[in-house]
């Protein structure tokens, strides 16, 4: 692939948006390659945590490639909007937990990709925002739906309708980020979060994520049923038995995702 780099090491798959010369803006090729990558990771049992970052030190992603957008017909623009929504939903739907490592600017679609991830860790000085209304359009890859679910309707309405640009430090205050840190410490912070999850049962991680995500869109009683079914998926696993044995032997369990 030309616009996406994928590295897999010790249970962590790192996706790098690789168009640093364009601030990692999304053209159609990048969207297609990101979608292919997501589908490959979905069925890769060796991958337990996914990290998404941007190439270079300036941007996570500044969103849609506006230079490409100027050359597209209205129908092609609609194609791109459908594609970006489809791909970000595939990222959100990955069974593994996904961390956005926001190592620079994250605007428009870049911010929407981060919102599709389960966790967001950012450079506290990074600039970000859903700025589409300043271009006479609206967020079209989930921003109007995911942001209110993360930080609440009123604040999301303010940020989107004013097209406000804000820092990682401010984003942490809004509840948008898991953590905001100095840029030099960003990658280590992301890997620390990944390692904390890697220490736990892989199937349990996936089922807990599923229960939370599915339950958030249901009433409480339905959510409790979803949780119960997800729990039941962990009962026959070898990992659950290994955890009990390790506890009795006072050692760390060795999970295999089985």
TrEMBL record:
Superkingdom of origin organism: Bacteria
Annotated GO biological process: fatty acid beta-oxidation
Known EC number: 4.2.1.17
Membership in a protein family: Belongs to the enoyl-CoA hydratase/isomerase family.
Organism lineage string: Bacteria, Bacillati, Bacillota, Bacilli, Bacillales
Protein name according to UniProt: Enoyl-CoA hydratase
Enzyme class: lyase
Single GO MF descriptor: enoyl-CoA hydratase activity
Keywords in alphabetical order: Lyase
Signal sequence interval, chain numbering: none
CDD domains tied to this protein: crotonase-like
Coiled-coil zones: none
Classification via Pfam families: ECH_1
